Amino acid sequence: MTAIATLNTIAIDVVGHYGQTAKNLFAAYRAGTERAVNAFSDRYEQLVERQPLPWINSEIKASLVASQQRVARRVVDSTTRFTKIANSAVDRISGRTVKGIEAFGEQTAWANDMFVVGAFRKINLPAAKLSLQIAGGVDEASRRLSRRMAVTAVGKPTRTAKKSITRARGATRAV
Hints:
mainly alpha
């Protein structure tokens, strides 16, 4: 009986890990989008401010920067809305999946005492445990990525990051 409960519990835990992984990836996507938009906004503002053209006065420059900032806010807001919708979809799908696993366990309870079914469950238990370990590892990796993106989205890029971006641009131009 413990193998049965363990397989169902493992399956539910796997679903939970992958659901959380999806949420972590959505959070990383949102933070990465915000980070990219902020970087683009900063560069755009610097570009507009540096233009020495006489027909671009300070009023036009301010208008250009304000327009770009409105677009940037809309991009970030729409990304935030998308991730909220996606997170709720993940919750719904995970919830339905868990209910399905529980219902399957209840509907197949009559076969729990069968020797053949018990033997197959004992054979599948190591694979289920391995699947749970993999799901846990994927969940932890996505959690670290999400945290890293959230931290770097708040702060400015480090000096080494700016150097690597400059090197990448130089390499692209050389090609």
